[in-house]
Amino acid sequence: MSSVKPRGALRDTDELAGAYARIRGFQNERCMELIELASPQKSETVLDLGCGTGDALVAVKERVGGSGRVIGVDPDKARLKIAIKQSRQFDLDAVLMEGKADDIAGVDDNSVDLVLSNYVLHWVLNKPEMLAEQKRILRPGGRFVFECGGELLQGGIRDFFDLIPDRESFYAENEFLNDAQWRQVIRASGFEIELFEWLEVQLQLTDLRAALEYFEAMTQGAFSAAALRARDVEQLQIKYPGEVVLPVSAVRAFLRKPL
Q1: Residue 234 burial (CB count, 10 A)
Q2: d(Cα 175, Cα 185) in Å, to the nearest integer?
Q3: For the chain, what is the domain count?
Q4: Which terminus of the chain, N or C, has less C-beta within 10 A?
Q5: DSSP string, 51-66
Q6: Smallest Cα–Cα separation from 258: which of 139, 109, 101?
Q7: Per-residue pLDDT averaged across 4-30, rounded?
Q8: How does pLDDT run across 66-100, given as a tens digit for each residue?
Q9: For 59-69, b where at least 16 C-beta lie within 10 A, e where not — what string?
Q10: Cα separation, 223 vs 239, whole angstroms
Q11: How much is the pTM?
């Protein structure tokens, strides 16, 4: 397992993490659907993989109740700091820890009933090790339920990603698998597939200014509105004169560790 932190986590700041917590409406909406699909039960132990600023923790804790346990794991200290503050604010009694998707050293083998992950796994470069780690911590019969970015669509978020000054380096921080690649790596992991589907969802932002702020926070500063050239800003203003609506290709899966 690699001990190297994701570059985005190293790049993030308290200011960017705070902005992300304010404007991550898209992620919150998708996460609520994911929680419905995963259906956490009373007394279960649920781990939020890539918990970020901790927005899902309240909804999960409500499902598992006082006898249940909620764990949040993220490599980003700035976002985790907000999650810890939110956990204390709502008196969640959640366990929050720094960790990576392929290295969750603070969680025991066979100790988790459900792992949730919402728009995180496209940032994970070693999918086989990530899947092996979830299989390690899940109890037999445990569920791994996730949704993440699929192949990037032209005319969607690429309109903004392609304006990142060092976009090749940024793209190297992500791994967007196609259908065959996902199915192959899941089969090799030994997980049973109960649901695997592709979705096209929409990222909706009130206007271009909100979109610029969103992508700056979401990319942990790789995208910079201040670094845009005047002609790039003009082209974005022409293309997005009002609400910014971007198609997002996503993959959603419900996996189970065999008994």
Answers
A1: 11
A2: 13
A3: 1
A4: C
A5: -TT-TTHHHHHHHH-T
A6: 139
A7: 84
A8: 999 999 999 999 999 999 998 998 888 899 999 99
A9: ebbebbeeebb
A10: 18
A11: 0.94
